[in-house]
Amino acid sequence: MSYLLLTLSLSKGVPVNSRVSSKIQQLLNTLKRPKRPPLREFFVDDFEELLDVQHPDPNQPKPEGGEMRPLNGEPLGVVTNWPPSLLASLQRWGTTQPKSPCLTALDNASKPIYTLTYGKLWTRSQKLAYTLLNKLSTRNEPLLRPGDRVALVFPNNDPVMFMVAFYGCLLAELVPVPIEVPLTRKDAGSQQVGFLLGSCGVTLALTTDACQKGLPKAQTGEVVTFKGWPRLLWFVTDGKHVVKPPKDWHPPIRDASNEIAYIEYKTSKEGSTMGITVSHSAMLAHCHVLTQACGYTEGEIITNVLDFKRDAGLWHGVLTSVMNRMHVISIPYSLMKVNPLSWIQKVHTYKARVAVVKSRDMHWSLLAQRDQRDISLSSLRMLIVADGANPWSISSCDAFLNVFQARGLRPEVICPCASSSEAMTVAIRRPPEMGVPPPGKAVLSMSGLSYGVIRVDTEEKLSVLTVQDVGQVMPGALVCVIRVEGTPYLCRTDEVGEICVSSSSTGISYYGLPGMTKNVFETIPVTSSGAPISDRPFTRTSLLGFIGPDNLVFVVGKMDGLMVVSGRRHNADDVVATALAVEPMKFVYRGRIAVFSVSVLHDERIVVVAEQRPDGSEEDSFQWMSRVLQAIDSIHQAGVYCLALVPANTLPKAPLGGIHISETKQRFLEGALHPCNVLMCPHTCVTNLPKPRQKKPEVGPASMIVGNLVAGKRIAQACGRDVSQLEDNDQFLYMQDVLQWRAQATPDHPLFLLLNAKGTVANTASCVQLHKRAERVAVALMERGRLNTGDHVALVYPPGVDLIATFYGCLYAGCVPVTVRPPHPQNLATTLPTVKMIVEVTSISECIHSIQMISQESEFLRSTNLPLQRCSPTWTSVFLPQESLLGSRCCLTCHSSANNTSVLCGIDISNTVCFSQMSHAATSALCRSIKLQCELYPSRQIAICLDPYCGLGFALWCLCSVYSGHQSILVPPLELETNPSLWLSAVSQFKVRVTFCSYSVMEMCTKGLGSQTEALRLRNVNLSCVRTCMVVAEERPRITLTQSFSKIFKDLGLSSRAVSTTFGCRVNVAICLQGTSGPDPTTVYLDMRALRHDRVRLVERGSPHSLPLTESGKILPGVKVIIANTETKGPLGDSHLGEIWVSSPHNATGYYTVYGEEALHADHFSTRLSFGDTQTLWARTGYLGFLRRTELTDASGERHDALYVVGSLDETLELRGVRYHPTDIETSVIRSHKSIAECAVFTWTNLLVVVVELEGSEQEALDLVALVTNVVLEEHYLIVGVVVVVDPGVIPINSRGEKQRMHLRDGFLADQLDPIYVAYNM
């Protein structure tokens, strides 16, 4: 604000008399200058992709009742002999009634193993308190001081030791923090519990001897430090470790205060664990409230099935029971798993008056009750259902009553209650003797509830929710219902909201989280006029409900289970109930279903995860899944985004056997759930996608150029250096003439040096040696062949000097050589068709190969049906009769149309290979441009690690050394599979300044040598000599790979400026190449959303949706480039996206094809602009890109024009009216999971198909389906139609490391991929 005031005052005319003020004035003048308005008559800026806003349904039900009034509970009664604190009550019973039973623990055989009396509880708690305060010390300082937090780590089958430890901490004025026993380092939620302990400053953990022995140990014998946990001292509270206090030591028994008594943990919806602090006064008040509401009296027997460390199990079974000298029979969870009827048996045996259970316990006891007779529940006056707030607890209560009413259970005994960790007990149905109204039941419309409105319906319908009341508000409490979101306005009487409580018996805060505390524990509800309803703060309970007739409280859900999908509310428990209703026991294992929502594309999506029975078949699973989808859709009017089935007993468990929902959700999002069946339904669920782009009428070319001029933008055109001056060897038209000239002028000058996998020299060739070898080939061809001038000859050779010599031998003989990759001996079935197709397309008259291919000769002959000539490496064979050298074509270089090249072994290639023809003049011009750009001369050495069969790789292997006279060190890429360091070692050994490689070679080095840089350095590998390392590519530069390569090998001296890329294509194999001079390649960042609409919008690094794009080298000498509109064929302005057109002396002259597609030939290789410079002939590259004039200066002193290649036009995917580049989607997919090694996308019948290679266990295969669907939706607004998970190596890659997506598509359609899993998203 101070800066704003300063600028305002300056703008009013403060005199400018200093350097600072003049700068500020200049800034102000700039800000005042009006921005140039957009030229809407020339440009249509439609690249803003806006998600479809879900408009509310005009017919949706709205609340119509009046504003609710806060509801008061009955007054809290005054008890004359009520103790001033809970500890005072313990002291009273421990000294006056020492033999009165307090707690009975049972073993797994349902037998009592120990009964703790009040006297024992008092004395043992005193011993522990004294020991903690006086016998634990570090460096003569007490380890604990009053107010310190202490972790209580006790198993669920040892309530006695827990109770002693809990009251021992209270007597020592320490704050107990009860947590679950961590069994392994990877327990569900364990890391978050550790975070809670750390934030509470816990340094000591109390446990039992048996529990401590069962904890995982480190090699030193100490308990391991669990992930995310602070370092703890573990203290065993068994009798031998505590000491008896002196007779004059007495624990302080103070009146209840607002100091923290204990901290109860709670796990939020997102999985974070928070500590809820409860004060001594709130603990005492809650005991008072429960005593009055439940009518507890001294000496009553209560059966507790719940977890005694938290919630209702702690409140009734540990705290209120001591207040009233009650006897608690604690039923451990391990016993309930063995004998679900154990709690009923103990009610009968001990004539218990009260039982505290969950609806789950009632349900499982129903299944086992047939085995038990002679039991009576007539002694019960209260059966407290702790999770009565669960909407489907009513079914358990009704079923339990129907069965056990005949065994003495009275209907009015069942008392559901509602509670939350923050507000503790919110409401409870009173026992019948208190004269309360009869229980209520509400049948509510699910559709109305989804809009937050209460509408009564009839039970005959399926789409209704029947809920029971949870009784009356607690004594002394004030309760209201507020709106879930925004300002806490009071709800209307027929509106569902969050229940809030104002009472002295609630928690007071989240420990260490003041912001969340203020939001939850200090809420001030207001009326519709904005007036506060009370001066007392309210606590949010996270319970969703309403106040019904007779002031009964009804709960219909929880905030933690709330899922807001397309503006409608759904409760996770309701969806679970619906899923369970679909043949529950036949298919779902023990009813274990988890429902949660994940945020995808700015809306919540419902995910259902269920454990299937071990004997369930795949057919059964898909039948069940389809029925669940239909049921949820018809009952809840909500679509399920993902339905996953996992094997039995694999979902993370909560401490007492339930499903750990937040951990399950976390595993789903991390791809660690490992389902065995998945059904994704994004097409039906995702309704907020941007509207499909409607193609608008194209702006005319004339309007466009005028718009560029008005906007001050130049036409996007650039050219390389002038090449008018002649070189020494420009007098020769043919490459074979250059070789002959060099053989005479410098016969012994070395041209080629071939390395093998061991790094030793396998072959060399000087000028005269290469000339003589070529002559021998020519003589053999002329003597033995029946070839005519211009006939095509296939050279089927592995990379090496023999290939080069045979190439020039064909030129000497007047034949047109066609370099062909040999078929792979281990994969003839898929590589031979490639050779056959090349033979057919190029009308091959003769095939020549080396003696290394003899073993493949019979298969090769059968494949090609051609005569085969064999040459030995020593060139002693003779060939075909001589013809005169009259051919006008020099060579054919094999190229692919769009996606496919014919140089990758192991792939069945379709008949889309095309061959670009280059004249002799074009060949010489190409060599001249490369020579000038790279400053090549006879004393220079360059290293080449490329395949020699097509494109720039062919030119560098076979042409450039002969033309420029430099020595080429040849490293066949296949040798790197045996020795990954071969190429870099050669570069270092020969101190090469210029080297060329492919992306596949760079990736091989990055992955294979990433961890071996130190070993390479010890072998004296030094890359500081490298001035330029160029990646030969016909695609968008892979910035991530090149940066990784530079970073990894920086320690070996590789300059960060050395690595760059080249760009060429089938119409011109070398358009851009960094060379040895000129500015470094520049990088810009594009808005990916604008790019989808064929717009270039530059943004800052790190901006949302930003895409880094680096320059593809410098434009070669003699090359002119222009950016043209793909539709109008008119020139575009600077920084506008269009097709890259090129005009150059070394452009190819056309495709060689036997099908006579002249129109395709003319359009690609000789086309003209529709306006502007209409005389120049251009070749269309088929690649989208843009030119941008930078502030840098090139070698000629002019401002540098940078060319940025975006991607192949033929590969782009037109979906929803928008253009997508496959590499952008693939980058997102690879990033979504660590086990995705590679990815490729294509379209099939308007569906997006994503193929991912799984580099890991097959059990991770189905994890990828949801992650891939999510990331493509989030980042690209596309729904994936099919996800195909395959093994590594299935996606075909050519020799330059480029994906062959169309071959992959052909394999997918022909069912040849042998996938691990195929998911068809519905």
Automatic annotation (TrEMBL):
Keyword list, A-Z: Cell projection, Neurogenesis
Gene3D superfamilies referenced in this protein's UniProt entry, alphabetically: 3.30.300.30, N-terminal domain of ligase-like
Main localization, broad class: other
A GO term from the CC aspect: neuron projection
Coiled coil start-end: none
Subcellular location per the Swiss-Prot or TrEMBL entry: Cell projection, Neuron projection
CDD domains: Dip2
KW Transit peptide (keyword) present: no
Domain AMP-dependent synthetase/ligase: 91-511, 739-829, 918-1152
GO biological process, one term: nervous system development
Region (Disordered): 53-72
Domain AMP-binding enzyme C-terminal: 1211-1313
Pfam families: AMP-binding, AMP-dom_DIP2-like
UniProt family annotation: Belongs to the DIP2 family.
Name of the protein in its database record: Disco-interacting protein 2 homolog A
Source organism of this protein record: Cyprinus carpio (Common carp)
